[in-house]
Amino acid sequence: MAKQLKITWTKSFIGYPSTQRATIKSLGLRKLNQTVIREDSAQLRGQINKVNHLLTVEEMD
Asked: How many domains does the chain have?
């Protein structure tokens, strides 16, 4: 089984570029402090790196 990532949106995107807003939405996050669980992949890691200042990420087994 592939690793999973627990992604929590912890900081508002107000004042950040619209591309970062779109990245948050594409991760499936709709509300502040919401958590989603996604399968680990290179594309997902790239999205997380783009907005890592707004997220908290934990690895799960």
From this structure: 1
Q: What is the CA radius of gyration of the chain?
A: 11
pLDDT at residue 2, as a whole number: 81
- Locus of tokens 């627990």: 6
Helix, strand, or coil here: 44? helix
CATH number of the CATH domain containing 13: 3.30.1390.20
- Per the structure, the complete domain to which residue 35 belongs is given by 4-60
pTM of the model: 0.91
Long-range contacts (CB closer than 8 Å, 24 or more residues apart) made by 29-35: 33/8, 33/9, 34/8, 34/9, 35/6, 35/7, 35/8, 35/9
Cα(56)–Cα(40) distance, integer angstroms:
15
